[in-house]
Amino acid sequence: MNGDFYGYEDLLSEEERKTLLKARDFMQSEVKPMVNEYWARGEFPRELIGKFRELGLAGVAYEGYGDPLPRGSHLLAGMLAAEYSRVDASVATFFGVHNGLAMYSVYAGGDQEQRDRWLPAMAAMDKIGAFAMTEPLGGSDVAGGMRTTAKREGDTWVLNGAKRWIGNATFADLVIVWARDVDDNRVKGFVVETPAEGFVPAKIENKVAFRIVENAEITLTDVRVPEANRLQNIGSFRDVAEILRATRGGVAWQALGVMLGAYETALAYARERKQFGKPIAGFQLVQDLLVKSLGNITASWGMLVQLARLQDAGIFRDEQSSLAKAFVTSRMREVVAWCRELVGGNGIVLDYDVARFFADAEAIYSFEGTREMNTLIVGKAITGQSAFV
C-alpha cells in the first residue's frame, strides 16, 4: 500500500532513512489514533508538544543549531513534511509554521546574535514559533498593501494593526510579526515574545479545514518591541520573499503527503470493502481512480525531489518553488476527490479518514500563495512579461 511507487525514499542516506522511519513510527503510533477526535473538536493536541520535543526533529535543515539533533538535507526535510501530512495535514502545518516559517525567518533574517538567542530553543521545541503576515484585509496583495505599522521610538518599535490566519498563534512563545515602517514604507520583521502587552490572539472558530490548527486573528495595539528583536537582515519585502521562496516548497511537500494519506487509505478500503461478492479493488473503474491517483503522486514526488536537490545546491529560484506549489496542490485536489469518490458514502465520515484529507486539501491549495499568484510568478519567468495587476 506504499504510495512511493518509484522508490524515491531510497534516495535518502541510510541515516536520513532512519530519521524518516522514526517520524513515521511516531505519527502512526502517537498521532494517528487521536487526530479525528481533535479534528472534530477543532483543537490542537497540546499534550503532544512534549512528545514532539522528545522526537527531536525540529531544525533538521538548520546547520549549527540544536545539536545533538540530527542534521539533514532539504530532501529529508521535504520527506518529513510529507510524512507528517500523510497522517494529518494540521500536525504537518504545526511543524511547517514552527520549523519552516518561524525558524527560517530567524535563520535567514536574523543576525548571528539573534540566531544564537532563539534558534537553539526553537530547535529543541522549548520555544514554539508562529509567523504573522496575512492580514484581515490583505492576502495576495500584502506585499504592497500591508496595513500593520511599525514606528520607531528610540530603541523601541511600536506595532499597531491586525493579522489573520496565523497558525500556532494561540500558544506560540515567539511570533514573527511583519509590519510596514511608517518612516521609510518598507516591510520589516519583529520577534514578539509572548505574552506581550497589546498583543491579543483570538482563535478562529467554525473552520471546515485544518480544524486542528489553531489559527488566530491577532490584534496589535501599541505593542512595544525592542530594536534587538527586529530581524536585522530584513530590509524590505524582497528579503521576506526570499523566506517565502524557501518555505513554499515545504507546502508542496505537505500536499504530497495529503495525497499519499488519501491514496493509501482508499487503497486499503478498496481491498477490504466488498460489493457484488468481491472486493471493490477488483473493479475496473475503482482501479482507474487508484492508478490516476498514483500517477499524480509519482509525478509530484519527482518534481519535489529535484526541487530539494536545487535547494541543497543553493541554486533554486522563486519560480521553481512557485511551479511546485501550483502544480502539486492542483494534483492533490484531484487525488483527494478521487479517493473520496472511491470510498463512497463512507468518504464523508471522519472514521474513514478520507473526509479529513479531502477537507484539509482546500486549505493547502490556498495558503502560501494561491495557484493563480504562483502561476503569474512562473508566467513572468518564462515569458519575460509581468501579468500582475
UniProtKB/TrEMBL annotation:
Pfam families: Acyl-CoA_dh_1, Acyl-CoA_dh_M, Acyl-CoA_dh_N. Its cofactor is FAD. InterPro entries: ACX4-like (IPR045008), Acyl-CoA_DH_CS (IPR006089), Acyl-CoA_Oxase/DH_mid-dom (IPR006091), Acyl-CoA_Oxase/DH_mid-dom_sf (IPR046373), AcylCo_DH-like_C (IPR036250), AcylCo_DH/oxidase_C (IPR009075), AcylCoA_DH/ox_N (IPR013786), AcylCoA_DH/ox_N_sf (IPR037069). Keywords: FAD, Flavoprotein, Oxidoreductase. The keyword Endoplasmic reticulum does not apply. Residues 13-125 form the Acyl-CoA dehydrogenase/oxidase N-terminal domain. Its EC number is 1.3.8.6. The keyword Oxidoreductase applies. Coiled coil: none annotated. SUPFAM superfamilies: Acyl-CoA dehydrogenase C-terminal domain-like, Acyl-CoA dehydrogenase NM domain-like. GO terms for molecular function: flavin adenine dinucleotide binding; glutaryl-CoA dehydrogenase activity. Gene3D superfamilies: Acyl-CoA dehydrogenase/oxidase, N-terminal domain, Butyryl-CoA Dehydrogenase, subunit A, domain 2, Butyryl-CoA Dehydrogenase, subunit A, domain 3. PROSITE patterns: ACYL_COA_DH_1, ACYL_COA_DH_2. Residues 240-382 form the Acyl-CoA dehydrogenase/oxidase C-terminal domain. GO terms for biological process: fatty acid beta-oxidation. Residues 130-223 form the Acyl-CoA oxidase/dehydrogenase middle domain. It comes from the Bacteria. PANTHER family: ACYL-COA DEHYDROGENASE, ACYL-COENZYME A OXIDASE. Belongs to the acyl-CoA dehydrogenase family. This is Glutaryl-CoA dehydrogenase.
